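# nightly structure sweep
# worker-07 picked up a monomer target from the shared queue
# config: single-sequence mode, recycle default, output format = structure tokens
# input follows
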Amino acid sequence: MAGKLNRSTVYLSGLLKRFELPATEGATYPEAYLEFFRTVIYLRTFGVSEETLRELWVLEKKLLMLLHVDSTGSRTWCLDSCGRSTQRERRLLLSNFDLGIPLEAREVQTGLDFGDRLPELFEGKAMGEDALRVLDACLKLQKTIRNEVRAELPHVREAAKWAGLIPK
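# output follows
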């Protein structure tokens, strides 16, 4: 994975810890990790701060938990959609989870639960958690990130041209 991303294993290990991703046994990681790290590296290339990306990651995971995606039984439930490329307008930016409708519709299908768990004493909404509120926070942060990328894109293109002129 380090070779494919042209990053050191130390750097990737740091990302793994800072984004609180589940470690796997052995040296091999599922393809979803590669795609997640690739997304983070691309966004960092465009000048998006790691702090902003971690903030978005926390929001996306919270939204996915409110939608009970974490109850599928997968240890990597927050990464399982990484690498899928269809219907990008319906997918969250980092987890790449498909909400089933365009994100700008600001709607979610709540109440999905794929596993058995003990019922909460209070509903999430009664405790101040609301999937639509978290989705709105995700969308605001995603919009900020997209604006940063759009603003930096001409500079990255020019830098890539310039880099081609550097003697080998």
